[in-house]
Amino acid sequence: KSIELDPTHAFGYYVLGHILYEHEFEFQKGYEAFQKALDLNPEHGLGLLTYAFFATATGRDREAGEAASRAIKADPFNSLVLYRAHPVFLNAGRYEDFLSEMDRKKRLRPDFDPRRMMVTYHRTKGEYEKALKLWQILYDPERKDKRNMYSNETRQAHYLRGLARLKWSIGEVDEARNLAEQWLEVEDLENVSLVSAAVVFAILRDNDRAMECLEKAYAEGDILVVRIQDHVMGWFLGNLLADEPRYHAFVERIGLQN
């Protein structure tokens, strides 16, 4: 409606692009909306950050990093820019920018807990022992941590799933599959992202169920579908299902760059 009332309303096109790609999975139409927004106002901080996430989802890492940098410059104290720019840098492999933005966020928001993102950072860098240690602090139900906000049940499920992924990363495949089996026993599959479940089934080499989860996630509009190219979901799925033709066909069919 805002675009109808004012065709030069740049943020309206940014919002439209966000809706099209993240909620309707119309990636080409989303790209066109973002390009229109960028033409109208190339320095809208929140709009640029929204485009940065789209660019990450569609494999445009260089563009994503540049858009995130411009978003910070244009609107450095916007709460969404502050809270969401750093993952873009991590996905783009701009590690110094990622760490710098994490430090800025900690200075401005003393309650910010960086450890979850640092798990991904260490795994991306191949620093698996550091990643494992942080994950255990965050989610192990046997550990006491006053900053841990999760219930014991949720912590146990998160702990097992994350540990399975990390164990698989370092080549401890049998242990990863054992942890994945334990996760299936404690997790309520009705209340977990189907994309997350697909990663676990892929660890178990149950490609049929992994693909079933991805297809259902796409059909039901699971927003994590747009993350199957990033350094969390995408890294695992891309490696676990590297030899699965159905996965590559799925990525191509839904319009994400493989």
- Secondary-structure-derived class: mainly alpha
Report the strand count: 0
- The ordered H/E elements are HHHHHHHHHHHHHHH
Beta content comes to: under 5%
List low-confidence stretches.
none
Q: What is the averaged pLDDT score?
A: 87
Overall morphology: globular
Cα radius of gyration in angstroms: 19 Å
Summarize the main sheet: none
- Amino- and carboxy-terminal Cα gap: 34 Å
**Helical proportion?**
over 70%
Helix segment tally? 15
Give a verbal description of the structure:
It contains 15 helices and no strands. The chain has 258 residues and is an all-alpha fold. Helix 13 runs parallel beside helix 15. It is globular. The two termini are 34 Å apart.
Summarize the structure.
The protein has 258 residues and is mainly α. Helices cover 71% and strands 0% of the residues.
Detail the topology: elements first, then pairings:
Blueprint: H1 2-5, H2 10-23, H3 27-40, H4 45-57, H5 61-74, H6 79-91, H7 95-108, H8 115-124, H9 128-139, H10 152-169, H11 173-186, H12 194-203, H13 207-220, H14 233-240, H15 245-254
Helix pairs in contact: 2-3, 2-4, 3-4, 4-5, 4-6, 5-6, 6-7, 8-9, 9-10, 10-11, 12-13, 12-14, 13-15
